[in-house]
Design goal:
The chain is an alpha+beta fold and about 625 residues long.
């Protein structure tokens, strides 16, 4: 093109001139440049002058005809490929867990370690519910994930490495694991930027647009129904707008009904909003109402504390341990998980032992005189033995820390806890995320509707997964009531006052997840203010003990002992720290009491007498 543009070419000779170009646009551009420089175009049919009208028409027709030929060839090739796919005979790179046998059929991978890892991923997704948690399970337990590469010079090579999110997500989205042959799940789309095609983007098609779907084409890992359920669960977990009907995964926030609440007025999703220090105060807000000017506004909002409490209490009352054999289900599930985890470790150990034995056989088969090869094989053998020792040590640590087998005491503890669901629910070790998962297993949807008469309240309509509905009512706090200290906190402070300091009371309240009326955590000053506000006084000690500093058991306080011996309280502290005097506290940060016998008093008086007096 450059030579033609500079006028250095007299004629362009070709068998098929139009094949010079990639498209008709390029072909006509070539004709324009040849016309400007009076360059001829010659093929096997004749000689053409681009400046001549008749020749230009023929050259244009040749370009169009060539484009038609290319289109026809593409259709024939794609048609043959699709026809082969409809028979299930079009071979593509199989996903991890499948290989082609000598007859060309897709079969499950003969490696038991690969099969166990794939099955473990599906099993953990049934339990955990998110791809990220499955990936984290593999990483925390140090379980490698398999992968077969099908590149050139690496056809069918098996690699083991850490699991990542994309591989777990791809595994769950692939219908091949259901025994179904699928073709045409994706299509390529050109991306145009600044008038030019920059890249090709691959798009996933909906299931009803797949070109070929053949069920029961090969052996399966999971059923087709489970695959559809997994896809729906992944769609629910995706961070898409709430209007599309996705509840999302349970998060760490205080709103227990996250993703389950809908507005009883307009039927749209209500999203949680967090306020206060660290998001301690949760509210449910419907922001999908459309104003007259077309903008989106707030439909209504309500504080979530009373609603969450009402729903949680109703759910705990609805659970009947006689109808739901929760304890046995928990035990069987834990046993199954322990067996699967131990099986994965045993397969890894078996593979490591095989590789070490193989390295030894290679080293043993080497001639002793060939030291160049023997040294290399000996080094490989030592590396395999080192890897085996490290793996056995890791298995021993995991077996001790994670306890892959349940003891009899643990079984009894699980049976006891499974029968007492409220204790598990209110336990400090139970997180909000775990409480949300429990509610998500039982409740499908919750509708909130404001009611202003006869009193300000919220109607709560619960739709269970069984199809049954329940109706509850919760009072809506007024503006002045929103910042009042909850009655539960006041009663708990009154119970904890005896034998505890304000600092210890604040620590206990924070550990139970309680907050003040303004949504903040408790401190020593806030507890003291609440006691003053509600008239909660600490119980006074016995007047005789308070006056004398000596308990009925004969224990001395710090000031009483210092007065008895005629020394300062810092001297008493020094003797206590050195272990000269035995002392104890009834509770943490409570006053110290000293155990003083007549012999101890004589010893202390001797120490005082031995102290040299400074001359005046």
């Amino acid at each position: 093109m450059a030579a033609v543009g500079l006028g250095e070419v007299g004629a362009v000779l070709a068998l098929e001139a139009s094949r010079f170009s990639r498209s008709q646009a390029d072909w006509h551009k070539l004709l324009d440049i040849c016309a400007l420089t009076d360059t001829l175009i010659i093929d096997h049919d004749g000689i053409y002058d681009p400046n001549d009208f008749n020749d230009r028409v023929i050259l244009g027709f040749k370009g169009t005809w060539s484009h038609t030929e290319l289109h026809g060839m593409r259709l024939r090739l794609q048609g043959a490929k699709l026809n082969k796919a409809k028979k299930g005979e079009l071979r593509c790179s199989p996903p991890t867990g499948y290989v082609y046998d000598p007859e060309g059929k897709l079969v499950i991978d003969p490696d038991e370690g690969v099969v166990a890892a794939i099955k473990l991923a599906f099993q953990q997704f049934r339990i955990l519910g998110t791809a990220f948690k499955v990936m984290r399970y593999f990483c925390i337990n140090d379980i490698p994930f398999p992968r077969r590469r099908w590149r050139q010079k690496q056809v069918g090579t098996l690699y083991w490495g850490p699991a990542n999110l994309s591989r777990i997500t791809t595994l769950l989205h692939n219908p091949t694991y259901t025994g179904t042959y699928v073709y045409g799940r994706r299509r390529c789309v050109n991306v145009i930027e600044d008038g030019q095609i920059k890249k090709v983007k691959t798009q996933s098609l909906p299931q009803d647009e797949w070109k070929v779907v053949i069920h029961n084409a090969h052996e399966a890992y999971i059923s087709w129904e489970e695959y559809l359920s997994n896809c729906e669960r992944l769609r629910q977990n995706s961070p898409v707008p709430l209007s599309e009907g996705c509840s999302g995964t349970p998060r760490e926030g205080f709103a227990l009904l996250q993703g389950l609440v809908i507005c009883g007025k307009c039927g749209r999703k209500m999203s949680p909003r967090y306020h206060g220090n660290g998001g301690c105060r949760a509210a449910y807000e419907c922001t999908q109402a459309r104003k007259q000017d077309g903008n989106m506004g707030v439909c209504w909002s309500v504080a979530g504390a009373a609603i969450d409490t009402a729903v949680a209490d109703h759910v705990l009352e609805a659970i009947d341990t006689e109808q739901l054999d929760i304890s046995l289900a928990v035990l069987s599930e834990l046993d199954y998980q322990a067996q699967e985890a131990d099986k994965t470790w045993q397969l890894r150990l078996e593979r490591a032992r095989y590789e070490a034995d193989r390295a030894f056989r290679q080293y043993d088969a080497t001639e002793p005189e060939n030291r160049l090869v023997a040294r290399t094989l000996e080094r490989r053998w030592n590396e395999k033995l080192q890897q085996l020792a490290e793996l056995e040590e890791a298995y021993s640590k995991v077996h001790q820390v994670q306890r892959l087998e349940l003891t009899a005491a643990q079984r009894q503890q699980i049976l006891h806890l499974a029968k007492d669901i409220p204790t598990l629910w209110h336990a400090s070790s139970t997180t909000n995320q775990e409480r949300k998962e429990i509610l998500g297993l039982l409740i499908k949807q919750v509708a909130l509707t404001p009611i202003d008469t006869p009193e300000r309240s919220t109607r709560i309509q619960i739709l269970w997964h069984t199809g049954v509905t329940s109706i509850l009512y919760a009072l809506r706090p007024t503006t002045g009531q929103r910042f009042q200290t909850p009655n539960e906190v006041v009663q708990l402070i009154e119970e904890l006052t005896s034998g505890r300091t304000d600092t210890e009371i604040a620590l206990e309240l924070n550990q139970r997840g309680l907050v003040s009326g303004t949504g903040r955590t408790f401190t020593k000053g806030s507890v003291a203010w609440i006691r003053w506000k509600f008239g909660i006084e600490k119980p006074l000690a016995d007047p005789i003990v308070a006056k004398s500093g000596v308990s009925p058991e004969g224990y001395y306080s710090t000031s009483a002992l210092a007065s008895l011996l005629g020394v300062g309280i810092h001297t008493i502290y020094y003797w206590r720290d050195k272990g000269i005097i035995q002392a104890f506290q009834e509770t943490q940060r409570s006053p110290w009491w000293y155990v003083v016998t007549p012999e101890v008093l004589d010893t202390l008086r001797e120490k005082i007498c031995r102290v040299p007096v400074k001359p005046k």
